[in-house]
Amino acid sequence: MAQDTLNSLDGGGLFPRLQQRYGLSENPLEMDAPFFTGAMRQHALETLRHLCGFGDMALVITGAPGAGKTRVLAELVRSESSRLDFHSVPVAALTSAAALARELKRVSRSAIPEDFEPREAVYRYFSWSESCVERGQRQVLLIDDADRCPPDVLNLILSAFVASDRAAAAIPVFAGSEAVERVLSSEPDAGYVHHLPLPALNKDDVFAYLEPRVINAGGSVDELLSAYRLKQIHILSQGSFGRLKRVASGVWLDMVAGAQGVSRFNFPPVQSLRWPAIALLLLGISWWLVSLQYDQTVENLPDAKAEPERVRKSITIGPESSEEEYESALMQKQNVASEPPAVLDLPPEPAKTVAEPEPEPEPEPEPEPEPEPEPEPEPEPEPEPEPEPEPEPEPEPEPEPTFTPILPERFVALERLQQRQGWTLQLVAGRLEQTVLNVLGRLPEDNKLRYTVGERDGKPWFMLVYGNYATRNEAETAAATLPDALNVDRPWIRTYESF
Fold first, then answer.
1. SS3 category, 211
2. Residue 203, exposed/middle/buried by CB under 10 A (0-12, 13-18, 19+)?
3. Rounded to two decimals, what is the model's pTM?
């Protein structure tokens, strides 16, 4: 395929072409920095930092191939190697319990006898790792590519960790696909596993990842990360960092065929125009049928006969006209008798002198009196509404069961703790109350030690705090001078409101 050979063309890959076309100073796809903090990557890193130092649970980070699991583990080692002792278990040591036992014997530096069985040697390693906390560095086992590890070996590591003092023993960190989490969650010890999923990248995540690298390489963000190219990179990469690095160069050099559904000019897909085209076709057919019916109706109407226009003729006869002119006018009147009547302008006749008597006006009749209106009947009184029945009282809710601490004199409810003002130091946290009691028992006479309980993923979450400080500077000073008996190097400085 073209995508698999993009970085092998011309011996030196595609970067010389990118450099010539866009003037890049270095390859942006090979930059490790800055660490990408989006898509839950920064959240996963901060959770690993805290739980590797103070937690009592095995950690599983999952994601699709190329999702950046190894990059998150590398950033964890880079940032926390000063206070944690990391040991990466190679893939060859995960093939069987015997190979794992040999690797752990090497890590423990002959602390495990050679004649121990593989299962007993793994259990002895986690018991031995508890003593490393006393020397100031807690051990962390990094098991990358855990998909290659057989299920019995994964369960052996988890059961050996649970059987030890989980607050001080080496923390196993598994990295792989969802299949690893399913294997570990099917065991009785699944309650001691904390899952950290890494979601796939969306289009905004791809832009946030490539933008600083393009800027550092001297490229144009508007050109290399245009809407068309960004959408094409996102679809071809399928939300994976690995595929993104393989396809981005080909997209920038226009060497990769456009992804399905991506258009350079953002035309809508043909399928989306199917229903509008059908509606337009039906509208045209209905208009044609209506117009055809109208034409047929007009053709079937009878022809209307036009009426002749009336001609208005006038003959003027004045007082100076002779008798011959008067007779010719009468003859002309008789000739046009069949035509519409004409208007004759004849001289007025003399008025008669006999005056007729005018008739006397008859007297007007008197108006009849109007009948008086009948009185309206009075409205009947409305019946009074019946009283509504009183609602029955609702039953009082039953009181929820309360938590009973083992050491009530050192326990503070979470609501009271959140109402305090200032800063404190969180030393340890875990699912079991015994986790915080183990650390509290190292210095039982110190009244600054208090613990509380909250909720995380629907389960109790116990937290041990130390001291009450007005400012962050005071809390940082106290964190640097913690009693050696507590065996805590870097506590979590936080406000009471953040609990």
1. helix
2. middle
3. 0.51
- Segment (H or E) for 19: helix 15-22
Encoded amino acid at 101, one letter: A
Could you tell me which residues are beta bridge partners of residue 492? 426
Closest by Cα among 138, 39, 40 to 82: 138
DSSP E strand boundaries for 137-294 = 138-143, 171-176, 193-197
Q: Which residues, 6 or more positions from 386, have their beta carbon under 8 angstroms from its beta carbon?
A: none
Residue 489 structure tokens: 């190097």
Helix axes 178-185, 151-163, angle to 10 degrees: 60
Which distant-in-sequence residues (6+ apart) come within 8 Å of 370 by Cβ?
Answer: none
Question: How far, in Å, CA of 52 to CA of 56, rounded?
Answer: 8
Mean pLDDT by 10 residues, the chain (499 residues): 41 76 88 88 92 90 90 92 90 89 86 86 89 84 90 90 90 92 83 92 92 91 91 91 89 74 51 83 91 82 59 52 51 49 44 45 52 54 56 52 82 88 90 88 87 89 91 90 84 88
- Provide the CA 443 distance to its chain's centre, in angstroms: 47
**335-338 long-range contacts, Cβ below 8 Å, gap at least 24?**
none
Is the distance from CB of 293 to CB of 287 less than 8 angstroms? no
**Greatest C-alpha distance within the chain:** 166
